[in-house]
Design brief:
This protein has 321 residues and is mainly β. It is built from three helices and 24 strands.
Length: 321
């Protein structure tokens, strides 16, 4: 009988002193989603904060704030009273590859007026890896007003040609000799050899898509063409012959369209003017004078396109997603 009474007393003491954290007088956060410093978080993520006890629902207005670089994200807050869980659902999808900060209001209380102490944490959304389609528009501005020296009577540009590729590969490099493809494009506007070279780079895995479009029959003027691009080969290069000319061409090259983890919506770059180093003519209409030995490709700074070491761009290329 004494043993039964002793057991009863022990059970009573156990029931009094076996309180878990939910009864220790502290309101604590036991789980958050996304977790602190989580990466590759989905753009449709919903913020969840689970507490160890029931909350005073009168303290939950503006309980969660979500921001990106100081810019507040609007959304709807709800509360699951059975799971003690606060939920914040953004009104729109989050942005690619951005760090978001979640802040909890200091006025959140439980039903016993205990305050929670967690303040904030952050996470980063995933990169944009789906393929994209772009339109490149070459806006040629070359005219007698912009480049009056020795201006030709029929200023034009050959058909656009280029590729999408990895950053370690280039369509051409300043300071190196031109390939046959670059030489033929710069001297005659022909795409054939350069197309073959690009197709070989595609076979080797360094390039992915050929870009080929029309030219500008009379400058000033514009021309557009569309192309596909993938996350694995996010860099673009496009060239076109300056015509007439000995071996001069314009280009926007080695330009990445995937910036800060997402595809850019629109980007405009001035086209540089280059000498392929394959013909020694000095005017737009010079007779053929093959350079022997070949020189390296260089950025043009001299007359007739340049003045005092500066060449006003002959146009620009706009890449629009």
């Amino acid at each position: 009988m004494k043993e039964i009474k002793l057991l009863t007393v022990l059970l009573l003491f156990a029931s009094i002193f076996s309180c878990d954290d939910s009864d220790n007088g502290e309101l604590t956060v036991v789980q958050v989603f996304p977790e602190q410093d989580a990466i590759d978080v989905s753009l449709d993520a919903v913020i969840e904060v689970t507490f160890n006890r029931a909350l005073d629902q009168n303290t939950l207005e503006n309980a969660i704030a979500l921001s990106n670089n100081g810019s507040q994200v609007s959304g709807v807050i709800s509360y699951d009273s059975e799971l003690f869980k606060l939920i914040f659902k953004p009104n729109t999808d989050l942005e690619f590859k951005k760090e978001y900060v979640v802040e909890l209001s200091s006025v959140i209380r439980d039903e016993s007026n205990n305050v929670q102490t967690m303040s904030s944490w952050s996470f980063t959304t995933l990169e944009e890896t789906t393929p994209a389609k772009y339109r490149v528009t070459f806006n040629a501005t070359w005219s007698s007003a912009t480049h009056p020296t020795d201006f030709p009577s029929n200023p034009h540009f050959s058909g656009l040609i280029g590729m999408t590729h990895v950053s370690a590969t280039s369509l051409f490099e300043v300071g190196t000799q031109a390939t046959v493809g670059i030489k033929n494009m710069a001297e005659t506007g022909s795409k054939n050899s350069l197309t073959t070279e690009i197709e070989q780079m595609i076979t080797d895995g360094n390039s992915q898509f050929l870009i080929s479009g029309g030219g500008v029959s009379l400058s000033p003027g514009s021309v557009s063409t569309e192309f596909d691009i993938n996350f694995s080969h996010p860099v673009v290069s496009v060239v076109s012959m300056i015509a007439p000319s000995p071996d001069w061409f314009i280009s926007v090259h080695d330009l990445s369209l995937h910036v800060d983890g997402k595809w850019v919506q629109e980007l405009t770059e001035s086209a540089g003017s280059y000498d392929s180093g394959t013909d020694s003519g000095t005017t737009f209409t010079s007779a053929n004078q093959p350079t022997d030995p070949l020189e390296n490709i260089f950025l043009i700074t001299n007359s007739p396109l340049g003045s005092n070491g500066v060449v006003v761009p002959l146009g620009s290329m706009t890449f629009t997603r």
